[in-house]
């Protein structure tokens, strides 16, 4: 009938292609699930943060830690309290406000992976240790701008975020977090709209999923809180088209909830979005 036939040089590649086709077929026929209603969000507040930022930087850029935290709170995502400070006196004053024990992190511009440059100290018990940590980080990084943050609740470190692809639109991601993000490459991706089934599959298919369920006597994490964060990130992706990239790492999954510790957020002027419901590539 004139149709083209696929030809593969080896049987292994043919079987692999058949496997992809079967998984795609199963995805097409499975129940889609529902997109949950998101409550406790501040659309106007989120829009105001983006509008003021792009008024100052029309080409876009990375939000500072303070405004990134504010945008997370507009989406109803819990963030571990933090205070920006520059200089030793300001850092010590921030330590008194936050309370001990605490975490000290560099806020030097351009530093993406803080631990790689010696820019993080955790579990600081008092002002004397805070001063020592400040001096060590200043020497290591060469910058006096810091973030003083409360200690997060113990839990499993995850990563969650999104990237806006020119073809697929917003694509959400979650996976193993902290220093394991790049080491294990344990990540799952989904496009919008994000249904309850999508979010559940993302989390439960991770290699680190047994840790969330409570491993070797550990208390299980609040999975529903983790799923809620993913849906709130999806809400941000739909409501704030200027978000080009969002990275929450780590997102602590604790028995008492899910808490964002470090947030990186890149804004750009909004562009036309592709059809999220498309079932074929353009």
From TrEMBL:
Top-level taxon: Bacteria
One Pfam family per UniProt: ATP-grasp_5
Matching InterPro entries: ATP_grasp_subdomain_1
Protein's recorded name: ATP-grasp domain-containing protein
PANTHER family named in the record: COA BINDING DOMAIN CONTAINING PROTEIN (PTHR42793), PEPTIDYL-LYSINE N-ACETYLTRANSFERASE PATZ (PTHR42793:SF1)
